[in-house]
Hints:
The complex is a heterodimer of chains A (403) and B (316). Chain A is 44% helix and 18% strand. Chain A has 403 residues and is of the alpha/beta class. The model of chain A has no long low-confidence stretch (mean pLDDT 90). Chain B has a two-stranded antiparallel ribbon with strand order 1-2. Chain B is globular, with a radius of gyration of 19 Å. Chain B starts with a helix and ends with a helix. The model of chain B has no long low-confidence stretch (mean pLDDT 89).
Amino acid sequence: xxxxxxxxxxxxxxxxxxxxxxxxxxxxxxxxxxxxxxxxxxxxxxxxxxxxxxxxxxxxxxxxxxxxxxxxxxxxxxxxxxxxxxxxxxxxxxxxxxxxxxxxxxxxxxxxxxxxxxxxxxxxxxxxxxxxxxxxxxxxxxxxxxxxxxxxxxxxxxxxxxxxxxxxxxxxxxxxxxxxxxxxxxxxxxxxxxxxxxxxxxxxxxxxxxxxxxxxxxxxxxxxxxxxxxxxxxxxxxxxxxxxxxxxxxxxxxxxxxxxxxxxxxxxxxxxxxxxxxxxxxxxxxxxxxxxxxxxxxxxxxxxxxxxxxxxxxxxxxxxxxxxxxxxxxxxxxxxxxxxxxxxxxxxxxxxxxxxxxxxxxxxxxxxxxxxxxxxxxxxxxxxxxxxxxxxxxxxxxxxxxx
Amino acid sequence: xxxxxxxxxxxxxxxxxxxxxxxxxxxxxxxxxxxxxxxxxxxxxxxxxxxxxxxxxxxxxxxxxxxxxxxxxxxxxxxxxxxxxxxxxxxxxxxxxxxxxxxxxxxxxxxxxxxxxxxxxxxxxxxxxxxxxxxxxxxxxxxxxxxxxxxxxxxxxxxxxxxxxxxxxxxxxxxxxxxxxxxxxxxxxxxxxxxxxxxxxxxxxxxxxxxxxxxxxxxxxxxxxxxxxxxxxxxxxxxxxxxxxxxxxxxxxxxxxxxxxxxxxxxxxxxxxxxxxxxxxxxxxxxxxxxxxxxxxxxxxxxxxxxxxxxxxxxx
Lengths: 403, 316
């Protein structure tokens, strides 16, 4: 071994190598920039509970994606939430889209209420940024030709048609005991549209609509409505309204001993809490609604996770969760957060929300054709899926037992 | 420098037009829009002392008028602007004539306006022409010819222009005979009647003028957000926004609604931007409102900014 004296050149070379070596871990450690997603919901005001549930679901999805190593095709890029409270003001929802777009949002989810979603999706369309609707059932959200808007979940029409199918199936299987119905609905967009569609479709399945009774939200006393129902003796009372009025109406029906069966479409108060804590009035009540797939292997663990976090198990959490996951999947397949590639990736998406009772995903004009609601019933203080058979974990009790 | 504050305010209002930030322009636009709503209320209620809790009725009439005209009859929404103003004025005249002939004033008139707005909300929820609770979705065709804006700066410029007209109406009220009669009615109806001022006609005319301005704001809203439903159009919170803006800024002054809108939006938007905790921003907003109402009963204009002071001296 020969000793070579230190020269200026060798010192410079060694220094450069040392600096390069020191810098290497930094290069290796450098993470790709986070992908920002705007989560816009009404987390204060009259829809705060449901808006918060959607937000919680979205945040859980971001946590899960990041914990699983981020978006792998983008070098493990992490997702970052930009949280916005739109209250119940469409102008505020649009303003939040502007704010987040300028903060670098690559996509949006939201907005629970259709009126907010209409304003927000339209604002996002001006930037060409993808918008994944989490809850908001108005058909117009995806039928007005905005190329950036996608809904993984069912629209109002899909759900009401599903409810009519379920009712037809149950009635036929039971020998057709239900021949008449009274519709009670809240008088804004959701209740009015639902009742109008039911009124049009029920005669075709052999159910005569005796009366349609709209009511305002809030309504604090249903005695007169229930007395009118009692007088008409319908086989079924079909309800579409929000939480407080839903519970109050069913309580009044029970107190007045109305013998009719109770079926609701998007029953606002139909939940696990309603089934467990108000079982004196909730037992046997049928509802057609968004729900999770009880047969999916991951659902029970997700529900435990919600219980542990003190979060109520409602469909909004699942919707918020999968709305973000849909975007994350599109980022992953596009390998970029560039809207020009993410929007087509969403359009071609077959991302399947495994905890929801859906058919395979296929987007047509931004609407997932595989999305559907399911028939539910309170049985033994629990919510059971009773329709369709493919996802059912119990048999429907129909018609309602007397007494 | 302070004596030039109206000039500075106008320059500040024009600055966002040079900004490329759609978010900033949108904030400026919503502020100007609030000022316009406040000015609509201020014309009848600030200058004339009418206590209206249901001004949303005029806003809703304007919004629905333009939405129905274009979706049902295919009429270009630009024609909806004057038509809505006429309808708003007609609604103001009918409401005013009915209420003032019956001698209603103060809290009784407030209740009637509240009920009037609620009746319209229920009608909009029930009638086929308004598409009931479903609301009316205006088809998206962004083009200036369709009164739809791709760039928020265009919408902001239009809101500023309409606000300038409304400010012009308020300034005219301050200087005209009609305005003087209105202020006389506000200060003492019996004395005004003794001087020969026709009370019913004066108040009805003021309400019609106010209805026209507020209905125009409704048209702008419908064309900016392209969706109207009964709660958005006739909801009580819209009426509250109008009277808050005018009262916080200074009811019965030309610049009051503008100052009120700036302060309220500054509080609201800054709190929203800086604080993430749900509910904190509205709470802070409410607390600051209480402070302003408690310590500035005449609104911000009551602080006697130089130009306003000159006006007051002239009034005296």
